[in-house]
Amino acid sequence: MIERAIGEEDFGARLAFDRGAAGRRAVAVPQWQGRETPLPAAHLLRDSVRLPELSQGELVRYYTALAQRNFGVDTGSYPLGSCSMKYNPKVNDVVASLPGFANAHPAEPEAAQGTLRILLDLQRALGAITGLPHVSLAPAAGAQGELAGILMIRRALEQRGELGKRRRVLVPDSAHGTNPATAAMAGFTVTQIPTAADGAMDRAALAAELDGSVAAMMVTLPNTLGLWETGIEEAARDLHRVGAFVYGDGANLNAIVGRVRYGDLGIDIAHLNLHKTFSTPHGGGGPGAGPVCASTALAPYLPAPVVVEGSTGTLALHRPRESIGQLQQFHGSVGVLVRAYAYIRTLGLAGLRAVSENADLNANYLRVLLEPHYDLPHPRRVLHEVVFSGSRQRKAGVRAYDIVKRLIDYGLHPPTVYFPLIVDEALMIEPTETESREDIERYAAALVAIAEEAERDPEALEEAPQHTPVGRLDETRAARRPVLRWPGPETEPCGSKGTVER
Ligand SMILES: *Cc1c(COP(=O)(O)O)cnc(C)c1O
Fold it and tell me: For 435-449, what is the mean pLDDT?
């Protein structure tokens, strides 16, 4: 009995605020030896604010226990489709945190010539990788890179005097959701292009939309079905013939890096997600980097700043002549940019090719292992990810949602579900290039076992997950009525004036 009670300390059940006791302290800071300057009384914090009072040991145990409940790429496979949750070399974190990079003052960028040199070399490397030589590293995320690209197209059309008549952006229905959202934010109307039976865009439907009212097409490449967009070169030529631009969403470049260049396909501008392909871990909401890479025609509109080299070899930050302006304070997420530079220099072209070859090999291996057990709407060779449909299991009353919740009981992270929207009960799995053969086989074996469970005992899957600290959450309520402050509405209300009455 006693052992049980001891073992049952539930670190998730109570916040640090509800633990400990008055007067306990975690760290004894040495006494300040200088003269004390009291804060002005008006700025004194309220004495009544209750802060957690824990000893150092209690605090360490509390946070260690919470950290152990976390799931990340460092604890297991994390094959969220479209997100490239791969293992990123830790050495690149070390490089990015070297004092010369980490302590550079953002208001004195030109004093950090070494950092600027790296940024200039990274601009050139990304230009070479994409075949779109004019690069701005400023955007802080993929979606911001998209917005920059579409605003650049908008500015180019404005200068041609065509903005008034070119109001439409074409977006295949297999595109990432940020594509139509970006076009709408930039003031365009979105025309959806349906997907054909082979999983590429319907070229006849595209042809029917092409006229002088089209500003651009935004195409996710590879598309969100994980498929190569067959005929993209011809499609780009058709767009150019009616005077429109082609935007390439390159967030998932790990599918083709080192083997295909967007510029060669006829794409005018693309963004990349350095926090997916180029070695920055992500998933916690940033920071990221979504550089835009442009053709010569669009280069004058790049977002500021770009790094340029003066005649004396001194590097400077530059605002392109017709720039759409600055997207955020300072010069982008420099730590993320340094990681990408280190990654590219470490791998070289041969290594980058191996990245995309292994990303595709892994996804295709998973496809072959799972094809007998799950429906595959577009049965052909995939690139970096594979999108199955849970429609066969749905007939037995099991939803894609039940399948992936059950995966958690196997200790595995679910894939992306219900996206892309054009696949019924979508299960979108991206193993990434860094998973081993054994990891992929383990993941496939769990999904095969679940497919068998779905036939044998479909109701049981509704109870999953059963081996986690919490079971099924009310996700709608969590999104609609999030509890974002302590204490939450179901504990005790906060007193007036920000104090907590107990
Ligand atoms: C992740 C992703 C984006 C958005 O990138 P963020 O950095 O999250 O803004 C856009 N397009 C595609 C295809 C993506 O996979």
Answer: 97
Please name the amino acid found at residue 5.
A
139, 159 contact by CB (below 8 A): no
Report the C-alpha gap between 451 and 443 in whole angstroms.
13
Query: What torsion, rounded to 10 degrees, do the Cα atoms 328, 329, 334, 337 define?
Result: 20
Distance between CA atoms of residues 451 and 445, nearest Å:
10
Q: Ligand 1, residues 173, 273, 384, 416: which to mutate, most atoms within 8 A of Cβ?
A: 273
Burial of 23 by CB count in 10 Å (0-12 exposed, 13-18 middle, 19+ buried)?
exposed
Ligand 1, atom 3: closest residue by C-alpha: 142
Residue 490: its pLDDT value, please? 56
Query: pTM of this prediction?
Result: 0.89
Neighbouring CB atoms inside 10 A of 460's CB total 14
Q: How far is the CA of 26 from the centre of ligand 1 (A)?
A: 41
Q: Report the alpha-carbon angle 119-255-217, nearest 5.
A: 80
Is residue 19 pLDDT above 90, yes or no? no
pLDDT tens-digit readout, 155-210? 999 999 999 999 999 999 999 999 999 999 999 999 999 999 999 999 999 999 99
Dist CA 300 CA 427 (whole Å): 41
Q: Which domains does the chain have, with CATH numbers?
A: 91-346 (3.40.640.10), 357-477 (3.90.1150.10)
pLDDT at 456: 96
Residue 310: C-alpha distances to residues 107, 109, 335 (Å) = 20, 15, 24
476 Cα: distance to centroid of ligand 1 (angstroms): 23
Residues in the ligand 1 pocket, defined by CB under 6 Å:
82, 141-143, 176, 178, 220, 249, 251-252, 273, 288, 290
Question: In the numeric block, which tokens belong to residue 281?
Answer: 């871990």
Contact between residue 73 and residue 85 where contact means Cβ atoms under 8 Å apart: yes
